[in-house]
Amino acid sequence: MKATFDLTLTVPADLLALSNSPEVSRKLITHSSSSKNQSAARVEVRFARTPPMSTYLLAFVIGRFDQPLKTVDENGINIRVYTPPGRRHEGSFSLGIANKTLTHFGKLFGTNYPLSKIDLVSLPDFPSVAMENWGLVLFHEPSLLASKDTPEALRAFVATTVIHELAHQWFGNLVSPAWWSDLWLNEGFATWLSYNELDAIRPGLIDSRSWFVSTELLSAMSDDALEASHPVEADVHRPEDTAEVFDSISYGKGAALVGMLHDWLGRENFFAGLRNYIRRHRFGNAATSDLWKALQETLNDRPAGEPSIAEVMHDWTTRKSFPVIFASIKTDESGCNLRLRQSRYRLPGADRLHDRWLWRIPIVIATQDGDVIRRVMTRSRMTIQLPNCGWAMLNPNATGFYRTSYPRSLMTELLREAVRGGIRPSGRLLLLDDVFAMHAADRVWAEDPLHAVHVLRHDSSLQVWTNMLNHLYEMGGAVPMSDTKAFNNWQRYVHDLCLTRLRARNSSGFERVRATCLDYAGDRNVENWAVKAFPRWLHGTRPETISPDLWSVVCRIAAGGSSGGIGVSHFWQLLSVLNRTQSIARREEIIGCLGAFEDKKRPEVEKRLISLALGPELQASEVLCLVDGLSSRSVWRLLTRHWTAIARRFEGPYMLKRLINGLAFRSTSGIRRVRRFFRSHSAVGVQDAVRRQIERIRLAAERVGKDRVEMRVLVNRVLVRLLNLSKFPNEMISGLSTNEIDDILNEPDNLPESAIDREEEDLLEALFKKIPDEEAELLELEQLVSEIEDTAASKSVTKATEYYVGKLQSFMENHPSVQRDLATSTPREIDSLLRYFYGSLRKRNGEYFAPATLICIRAALYRHFMSTRRINILTDDAFYASNTTLKSMGRIFIARGGRARHFQSIEPFRALHARQRGTRAMSTCSVPASCLVTFAAALALLSAAFSIQISEAVTSIVLNGNAVLLTGAPSLSGRSPLNVTYDRDAQMISLNFADPVPPGIWELYASFTARINTRLSGVFRVASPPGSPPHLDSTIIATYFQPTDARKAFPCWDEPAMKATFDLTLTVPADLLALSNSPEVSRKVITHSSSSKNQSAARVEVRFARTPPMSTYLLAFVIGRFDQPLKTVDENGINIRVYTPPGRRHEGSFSLGIANKTLTHFGKLFGTNYPLSKIDLVSLPDFPSVAMENWGLLAGIERHTRGTSCAFVATTVIHELAHQWFGNLVSPAWWSDLWLNEGFATWLSYNELDAIRPGLIDSRSWFVSTELLLSAMSDDALEASHPVEADVHRPEDTAEVFDSISYGKGAALVGMLHDWLGRENFFAGLRNYIHRHRFGNAATSDLWKALQETLNDRPAGEPSIAEVMHDWTTRKSFPVIFASIETDESGCTLRLRQSRYRLPGAIAFT
Q: If you average pLDDT over residues 976-989, what whole number do you get?
């Protein structure tokens, strides 16, 4: 929504006023009575009209500033830099950067900057680093000002910030995103350009490529590896969603994807495409697809068969996560071949649902001979013949957004090449980070990254060293302090590593590397030196002796040193200096040092730090600097004790996110504390940051637990030997002298880079050959996995198992080193060796691998390796292998947790919707009796009429509403409310009346607006499947209201216990089909088409019959084009219809037959016939879950009815039809009883399959493998599980209970009941239950009561059903029974003992 803006400001006459465009007039409107009081005078300042622009870019500034620094670029653009009074000289650096940037970008983009001026204004406080308002760029002061004493790193930061904001003048201002989901087109381009073009604008300032990788790329990869990440093209539907996408994904990953495109297409093609893009969309808006189109038009010389830009980039922008490429070199008679295999990079504990994702990856390969090979990897595997044998490295300049894993032999060669200088710093940095990332993903042992650290310990790159030390800090967290020997050895290892760097002195002007090493060294003499240097730094008496890069390091070491450091009196001196300091950069440096004094444990210090954080003395941005210097424990105390004050001070999400990211706990208790706190304390725009931080804490806690034993062994055995090889063993142990430190810091020395000693190299090779280099062998193992996956469907399980296990045994015989390792290794080492075999099988289990085949192969592996060495692996389902006669069931999609439903998260309930077990969900006194809803196909202006029963006088009627806006005044039987209030967080609309509304039946009428979305929730739009006739409108509109999305479509009460009848009217195009829960009763033409060929212009009003009383989430409709339905009538006269996409009518006959038999069978089984007159089954091209049980209108994703997927289709149809009784006719009283829906529907879909479609599959085995063993039991063994009767207090909690516990465990409990009570008693009880609660609601206790009433012949003393089942439904977890048979003179006795099944590390007291 762009517009031009004419701005007029009335301001004090003595203040400066600036806006986007130049000032055109200034008129005095009030005079001052005193010449000394100019602020009393007022002037009216009018600015020129802006070009068309988005509203968020409008800006103005009013205040006092120094006379501006100014210049005019070669295109006549006026450039001005405004600074605080007395700081004018600090703006010259930015002015020079801005001047060169505008000229450079104008040439680069083929479009000059379109305004006549641009102002850069420094502000003492600002909610972000800077803001790109068109023609008036605002900066937080340290982001714009730089003096001759400014550290080199900060000058680089200022330069990249100015370039970033000026890049936005084209990307974001001249061409704006069509919607916030395309934000990356702004931030990704501006971020990438700020680094990539820095050398052209200010040569030699920094190594911009390494800086980009360290600052943006690796940060984005770290965040994108989390489950809480999101695609670059993010979903943005609510105002608060916009704040969530201003993160490292839009900035860092977006920039990395721009760089990958630039490297793939080449600079000339890339910028030619950008010029097309800018010229075509200038002063307008663009989406991601517009960029792909503009870039594609410039490509004429691409290799044949190469995919289009849109095809390649679609994978990267519409998915979260990224790939890892496993690379190895295989030599045979044909030469050297580089073998590549891609997989999704996944951290431990992450969802495996997307493990089979593939990316189209533009790859760059550097070879030992200097050749560069470019390809696009489009498949999971790729083989490239190398021109000559030798090493080969992927992503040598870190231009691709993927990780690479190498076998140890190739990794060692690449590290040697890095030491020789054959790999650029950015490539060395990514090489190092990749090996640490593989360790984080449990792909390599801790020895591998430490090997890389040791080889690169003389590296001259600041980014390499910073990355190295950060990773060592994280890794050191796993070294237990209780093991004094291990802890001291680790400390000494890091200490000596840092001192090696300090002694090298191999790079002039390398103070920042040395500063980093000093900070990490932990040396007593370094601390003493810092204590002596601190007064010089504090008072500036000898600033020339200490590099500006070392100022803050000196303070932190001196204040927080283990030897006592400086006294608390210096804390108060720092505060005194702070009060006299004007420079924001210098102030922030001092403030950052104040946090180091928290270790003094003095109450007055802690109290003063809190008062600084909460009081008015510091700007909001300065508070962040203070918090950055505090420990996680102190940040946590500050947040939890003063949340209200903190949230009020940091109104925007940017600063709150910084605070949340400071919660770097490493324990499971930290997860619980953070999660518990933010459930009741939140703010707009930080939910994703909280989820990410919780996931980071979980990963850190798990890593510490996993690595504790390994790190103890590694530190005590390996690192000690490395330490003994140091060149300066005696000096290293004693540390550095104070004079030596001064020499290192003040005397540049250009000594040549050291090479790895031959002795050290021999030791490293010996150490890392202790475990054979089995990467190539593991690739062969993985080939077996793929072969099994591809062919097992055509073999019986027995033959498949024998065949492939035989191949595995043959493989072992041909590789003695692997066989030998299996015989002598620990269980963990064996598990690592079999990762590509056993692990890959296990991963595939959740997706396309036949469960029976999987179980048998795993069991056979177990038997084979048990014969090799008695170890405890694969024991969980080994017993399935004995005498099995199961048939292979081929490639079946196994939905983990049954028919998994995916729901979006929504804002929490307030007190009005607080739900405790046994209480009503709503505290209002109004209950809906009936509802009449009218929708138009465009959802422009709609209406709803409710008949509600009020039981006692009320002054407010509260409905649920989410993104629904009432239009006009609602009416309650002629009464109008005093006002209408919206609570967007609680998703409620309150109608507030001046006088109490007395009890009785009232008619409530409301008109409202809502919108159709594409997020597959509420009322949504989907496209018809590929292959539909091109002349037909491809739009389908459908609904998905479960569990709480009806409120997105119309104001309502959408809790399950609030039942009502519904009268629905739809206004739709005359040529489209409209379906709803009940049959159509009338169709009236309301607008005619002016052309017989354009029937879509005509509109009809379709009215449907009144529904029976039902929960609001079951209301549904579908509008679209479908084939003529397949239909039949069952023996009770129910009309059954199946609607399929055009041209696919024949594929619905199987489902029609299943539905016909199911309705009849269930009517007899439950003693209650299906209560509606019709039921429709509708196939949709996209849907948020497998299917949805809307009463009378089942909707779901298309599934083929050929081959082995018939079983899946059959169980799905039976499942949804079972819901017509369990869920629809009898609904749960609250979402905590959801298992009464899903548990019964899941169990019935398997248990009754043979009665409906005999011989289709072995339904019992299928149930056990799909729902019981491989889903419910696996998940219920976790500490993160929950009881079947789950606590549901807030809307987002409802999504949590649609999982394998409600589906699989619920179904298993139903089956256990059925087996215990017997089929006759069980179904007699169900008939009681359904008859008693039909058209109403029930709780779990109602089921126990109905079942108990049918039992007359149970053994004396047997506990009641409620007593038995209470343990199963109100607790998580399950028991294990230990069974043994003992024989004595009295005969054989079966002895049983039960205990809770508990995985290692689980809480024992439960």
A: 79
Q: Which two tokens stand for residue 453?
A: 């650290």
Q: Please tell me what DSSP assigns to residue 961.
A: -
* Crossing angle between the packed helical segments 254-265 and 184-196, to the nearest 10 degrees: 60
CA distance 660 to 375: 41
Return the top range by mean pLDDT from 557-571, 742-756, 1094-1108.
Answer: 1094-1108
What one-character DSSP code corresponds to residue 860?
Answer: H
Token pair for 199: 């050398």
Q: Are 376 and 362 in contact (CB under 8 A)?
A: yes
Q: With CA atoms as reference, report the closest residue to 386 among 341, 339, 336.
A: 336
**Which residue type does 442 have?**
D
Q: How would you label 829-850 residue by residue, b for 16+ Cβ within 10 Å and e otherwise?
A: ebbbbbbbbbebbbbbbbbebb
Q: How many helices (H) and strands (E) does the chain have?
A: 51, 45
- Mean pLDDT on 80-102: 93
Question: Contact 250/187 with Cβ under 8 angstroms?
Answer: yes
Supply φ then ψ for residue 100, to 5 degrees: -70, -35
> To which H or E segment does residue 12 belong?
strand 8-12
Question: 1296 and 901 in contact (C-beta within 8 Å)?
Answer: no
User: Which of 455, 530, 532 shows the shortest CA–CA distance to 500?
Assistant: 455
In the beta sheet, which residues pair with residue 1074?
1119
| Full DSSP string of 13-79 | TTSEEEESS-EEEEEEEE--SSTT-GGG-EEEEEEPPPPSEEGGG--EEEE--PPPEEEE-TT--EE
What's the confidence (pLDDT) of residue 763?
A: 36
Q: What is the C-alpha R_g of the chain?
A: 35
Secondary structure class of 1023 (helix, strand, coil): strand
The pLDDT assigned to 983 comes to 76
Instruction: Mark out the alpha helices in 595-652 (DSSP H runs).
Output: 603-614, 620-628, 632-641, 643-649
pLDDT in tens, 751-784: 223 333 333 333 333 333 333 333 444 444 444 4
H runs (alpha helix) in 80-181: 92-109, 152-167
973-990 burial, b if ≥16 CB within 10 A, otherwise e?
eeeebeeeeeeeebbbbb
Q: What is the mean pLDDT of the chain?
A: 76
Do the strands 1193-1197 and 1174-1180 form a parallel or antiparallel pair, or are they unpaired?
A: parallel
Is 187 annotated to bind ligand? yes
- Cα separation, 509 vs 500, in Å, equals 17
C-alpha 435/C-alpha 437 separation (Å) is 5
- Residue 1197 identity: I
Hey, CA dihedral for 78, 84, 87, 90, is it positive or negative? negative
pLDDT at 1229: 87
Q: How far apart are CA 1367 and CA 1342, in angstroms?
A: 16
Asked if residue 164 belongs to a known ligand binding site, the reply is yes
Under DSSP, the state recorded for 729 is H
| pLDDT band for position 565 (cuts 50, 70, 90) | low
Q: Residue 468 class from Cβ within 10 Å (0-12 exposed, 13-18 middle, 19+ buried)?
A: buried
DSSP states along 1322-1381: HHHHHHHHHHHHTTEEE-HHHHHHHHHTT--SPPTTPPPHHHHHHHHHHS-S-EEEEEEE
Determine contact, residues 187/220, Cβ cutoff 8 Å. Answer: no
**Residue 1241: C-alpha distances to residues 899, 1136, 1225 (Å):** 10, 20, 13
Out of 45-49, 221-225, 1181-1185, pick the least confident.
1181-1185
Most distant CA pair in the chain: distance in Å? 119
Give phi and psi for 132, each to the nearest 5. Answer: -90, 25
**582-596: burial string, b at 16+ Cβ within 10 Å, e else:** ebbbbbbbbbbbbbb
- List active site positions: 165
Collect all residues with Cβ–Cβ distance below 8 Å to 740 and sequence separation of at least 6. Answer: none
Query: Which residue from 64, 60, 78 is spatially nearest to 8, judged by alpha carbons?
Result: 60
Q: What whole-number distance in Å separates Cα of residue 776 and Cα of residue 788?
A: 19
The H-or-E segment that residue 702 falls in is helix 687-714
pTM for the model stands at: 0.55
Residue with tokens 């916030």: 180
